[in-house]
Design a protein that fits this description.
- Among the domains are: 2-37, no CATH class; 42-205, no CATH class; 366-420, no CATH class.
- It is 44% helix and 16% strand.
- It has 15 helices and 14 strands.
- The strands form five sheets. The protein has a three-stranded antiparallel beta sheet with strand order 1-2-3, with no helix packed on it. Strands 5-4-14 form a three-stranded antiparallel beta sheet. The protein has a three-stranded antiparallel beta sheet with strand order 7-6-11.
- Strand 1 and strand 2 form a beta hairpin.
- The relative contact order is 0.10.
């Protein structure tokens, strides 16, 4: 099905659209190479990621780092138990560890923009359930359900009615299962605002569509040129001053003779007429295909907010300090927000309080512990100097961002000065 409309300069262009099984509408302008359409289905996103080495490396690196986190329990802002989820239940389901569970969560966020957690029977008991993430590409959404979700929901009655709706999940063996919406939790990488299906979030892969295609073309180009690098073009050189039969095109027998001689092990070949030999690919380095691959790798990493130092470390190493600081930035600004979405759900669903995902147990965090100790030493030194100068308590609290209720000014006077030691 297609509609015609005017597209600039008085030209008439065709705009076509397709509807997938999820009810998403995909428009296409210019059905040729390099067209403007770049919204792709979840299944196509998964295929694109798995077949592109640079993009797969970036996303798997991010998932590896995220999966190293542990969920700890806090009380009044203080850590009271490490690896709290593991102490409650050893595994989220029979087939996975918590590490694998966290890896899947980040994988589907990065690839499809949505991670869909299946909690059978909407269980409120974490010790008596089987939590697992579904493949978004295997889900078919009910049109009636989507239409309800596209409206404002103000009452609990309307909300509960929507939760009784269901989606169809198709397994790889061809079988399918209807799952109630209340048994599912949808986590979005960016947002679901403006989506025709409010259950699905925006995916970064759509924004990277053309970069992914260009990266694939560069890989294809390298393969083609490597294939042609060992091949030659052999041609006879005609002499314009001669008009004899030496200038007529080579016969098939002559062509085969030259090919046999070029491919033989002899060092010297005698020929009747001069011939010209050229490679199909003279200089692979001049094509700069490896540089193109590296550029795409960093573009992909930038889209997923992975610092360049970490990307470079994964390829060719980086200085220790830069690497560790970059890793801390990644944890603080990229991994923790996504982790908090997950731990917020655990708190609400299983009536838990103040659980947080942390990476403090990893080696790269030690450099920040050292910096924290140094900062505390500097603050303590500043406190003593301010007290010696007679600065008032409330002023000290403001300057040092502390919350002292009292300070022993008289006791400080009895402590010998360092200058007297």
């Amino acid at each position: 099905m297609a509609f015609n409309f005017s597209f600039g300069f008085g030209n008439r262009q065709k705009r076509t659209f397709d509807v997938d099984k999820d009810g998403n509408v995909f428009y296409s302008l210019f059905n040729g190479f390099g067209g403007l359409a770049n919204k792709i289905s979840d299944r196509e996103k998964l295929k694109k990621v798995c077949e592109n080495p640079a993009l797969l490396k970036v996303i798997s690196l991010d998932c590896d780092i995220f999966s190293l986190g542990k969920v700890n329990k806090f009380q009044e802002g203080k850590l009271i138990e490490e690896d709290f989820l593991y102490s409650l239940v050893k595994k989220p389901n029979l087939m996975q560890s918590w590490t694998s569970f966290f890896w899947d969560y980040k994988w589907w966020l990065n690839v499809c923009g949505t991670s869909i957690l299946y909690n059978p029977n909407n269980s409120k008991n974490i010790g008596n359930t089987s939590l697992q993430f579904l493949n978004p590409a295997n889900i078919t959404y009910n049109d009636t359900l989507i239409r309800k979700l596209q409206k404002f929901i103000f009452s609990n009655l309307s909300y509960n009615e929507v939760l009784e709706g269901s989606i169809s999940y198709k397994f790889d063996n061809g079988e399918s299962k209807d799952i109630l919406l209340k048994e599912l939790e949808f986590f979005h990488d960016l947002t679901n605002a403006g989506q025709s299906n409010p259950l699905k979030g925006i995916s970064r892969i759509d924004a990277l569509y053309k970069v992914i295609n260009n990266s694939e073309l560069a890989l294809d180009a390298k393969g083609i040129n490597l294939f042609l690098a060992g091949k030659f073009m052999v041609a006879g050189k005609a002499d314009p001053s001669k008009t004899d039969f030496a200038n007529i095109p080579m016969s098939e027998d002559e062509k085969q003779s030259i090919e046999q001689k070029v491919l033989s092990n002899k060092s010297i070949h005698a020929v009747k007429s001069m011939i010209d030999i050229k490679r199909f690919v003279e200089n692979m380095g001049a094509l700069k295909l490896d540089e193109s691959f590296m550029a795409d790798f960093f573009i992909f990493g930038s889209m997923f907010n992975i610092p360049r130092d970490i990307l470079e470390t994964s390829l060719r190493g980086s200085t220790y300090e830069n690497q560790e600081k970059a890793m801390a930035r990644l944890i603080e600004y990229c991994e923790k927000p996504k982790a908090q979405k997950l731990t917020d759900w655990f708190e609400t669903q299983f009536d838990l309080e103040d659980i947080r995902m942390s990476w403090n147990h990893l080696m790269f965090m030690k450099i920040f512990e050292k910096e924290q100790i140094n900062n505390q030493k500097l603050k303590a030194s500043a406190l003593l100097e301010l007290m010696k100068a007679g600065v008032k308590l409330d002023e000290i609290n403001t300057m040092l961002e502390t919350n002292f209720s009292s300070l022993d000014y008289e006791g400080l006077k009895k402590i010998p000065s360092n200058n007297n030691i």
